[in-house]
Amino acid sequence: MRFIAMPKKAMTIEPKPNKTSLSNGEHLEFEEKVADLDRQMDELRKLSSTKGIDYSAEIRQLQRQQVVELKRIYSNLTAWQTVQVARHPNRPLLGDYINLMVKDFRELHGDRCFGDDRAIVTGFGHIGRERVLFVGQNKGKTTKEKITCNFGCPNPEGYRKALAKMNLAEKFGIPVVTLIDTPGAYPGIGAEERGQAQAIAANLYQMSRLKVPIVCIVIGEGGSGGALGIGVGDRLAILEFAYYSVISPEGCAAILWRDGSQAPQAAESLKLTSKDLLKLGLVDAVIPEPLGGAHRSVHDTVYNVEKFIVKTLRDLKRIKIDNLLAARYEKLRSIGTPAPEKLRRKTRAGQDKIKAALQTLPTKRRKVPAKV
To answer: Could you tell me the domains of the chain?
Structure first.
């Protein structure tokens, strides 16, 4: 009886999943080489599982090439490319932050006036050890959710709901955390009839006077007055590849050039990236994202945001409320002023305090020697 020696199958050692990898169809137009490397890795994994051949060394080599390519791309993004990253369909949305970051979340509904706008979500919960009021703009993930939320464009009742809950938080001394992610306030006729502009203006006014710490973070799109409606606070931060602008690039191109294809040029002119905003002093901090954007590692992004919120709230709670309100007012008033003028304003406030303190000191009269 003859025995035929069969070749031994090589034991396959599958490398760990690469956080920078995405499935086909999820890459942006400027990530062609990254998409090609992902396709090559997928093919090698399929061959490894079907033929039993170990391709782990080749896959690791491709992963290293992909990391180098992602670093090259994301270190030199244009303003328009940043907008595209901020709109990526896999980017973490409000629901991801609530599920992964907020403990014991209790949602609060309604504005006690018209209805409950699903584009803005409010509720109490814990972030770390801090009890906070959480206010965020919700875009929705599925098509049904997106339609319900107006694709993240709030109505006036959404802003009134947010303000009512912030006043409730102020009553109990609970800090407010807002997450901004909207292309703009809803521009429908019904929204205008119900006082869209007035609702946003009321929020700007009341949030500037709220006697609790407020932390605002732009997690995706920060468009127009829709973002400002919940964007007034003691600290304003932005994720590395989010954007914050007075208008969307497409809207700006339509107004200035009457041509939507000029959106890339409009994005460059608007100075809407995190680097530009930090340089101009419009944001206080830039929260780093994982290599290749937040959509490549949702958990890492949420962790970075949570760490920033906890640290910032700890610092703000050490400041007296009167000083906090004065600093918030001065911060808002100094937007757009040059650096020398800002320095002059800061020193002027200090000089006024010193003068007031000197006036309260009792003055001793000099003894005049008697004439002989």
So the answer is: 32-76 (no CATH), 84-333 (3.90.226.10)
